[in-house]
Amino acid sequence: MNTALGAFHFLRPWWLLLLLPAPFLWWQLRNRTDATTRWASVIDPAILRALTIGGEKPSRLSPHDLLFAAWIIGTLAVAGPTWKRELSPFADARPPVVAIIRVAPSMKAEDLPPSRLERAVQKLTDLVTTREGASTGLIAYSGSVHLVLPPTPDKDVVITMAQALSPEIMPREGDNLVEALRLASRVLRDGGKGGSLLVMTDTVAPDQVTLLRTARNDIPFEVALWAALPPARLDAAQDLHSAASSIDASLEAMTPDRTDVDAIAGELDRASTTSDVAGEGERWQEAGYWLTPLIALLSLAWFRRGWVIGA
User: Fold this and answer.
1) Residue 114: is the preceding peptide bond cis (ω within 30°)?
2) Which residues constitute the domain of residue 154?
3) The VWFA domain covers which part of the protein (predicted)?
């Protein structure tokens, strides 16, 4: 409760200036429509009391009183009272991810039918479908590193570009995972929304494992390593285990079912987000609409016979 009171404020405080003329207008309207007050200047007070019906009764709630109350409540509602924050509708529901796929001749091996590369693309398709609405980027690497697609929420574009990847289109063979991770980190950093990196590969060269140990500071985002190998072969893949250990990455095998997809999706959804971009992240929650039913209730009084505001 104390936290809510401390955070309470108005989103549009200048509207509160409308409260200043409200008491004066209420007093003016009440006096101008009071018949007793108007006749007091021309009729003797004793005679006026005798001619006034119900003048000794305490005045009941008048239309002017309800108008004054509606004015106050309406002004408070328009000023936008708030005391808690909510996610902006322009913010991503899930943090972005950059998928880094090794596109090399070894990825054409068919021990993971139809091939390691095609299975990796199929798994990526399942992943972006599961994370509907989340932004996904795509980087292809072998001996060279290429940004195929910056993060986008359009899963169809991501899937189409991933399906077009082939070792034949890569200009140089080899393994340059470290530079791929650095490029992906720059992409996420420039995006300003946080996120994580997903590496899909079947092997990591020994020199890259060594470089990963010294390049961890250049990769400030969480990394998940998805091994494009049959699950039974993952335990023996010491290069993948060493690479994952070097950058504190999780390591997941590609399974015949969806358990790996669900595990990876859950890990990516837990990645940290930032709100450095204007219009992104959190905003103060508008609470003025909670006063609308009260205004509507007050307006019902004007449906009563004889309830008018005279001049």
Assistant:
1) yes
2) 97-269
3) 105-202
**pTM passes above 0.70:** no
- pLDDT tens-digit series, residues 77-121: 888 898 887 655 555 568 899 999 999 999 999 999 999 999 999
Terminal Cα-to-Cα distance of the chain (whole angstroms): 45
**Which amino acid, 234?**
L
Instruction: Give every residue of the chain whose pLDDT is below 70, as ranges.
Output: 1-4, 6, 30-44, 47-62, 86-93, 272-282, 302-311
Query: 139, exposed or middle or buried, with CB in 10 Å at 0-12, 13-18, 19+?
Result: buried
Regarding whether 144 and 62 lie in a shared domain, the answer is: no
Pairing of strands 9-10, 81-82: antiparallel
Q: Are 69 and 298 in contact (CB under 8 A)?
A: yes
Q: How many domains does the chain have?
A: 2
Do residues 15 and 164 share a domain? no
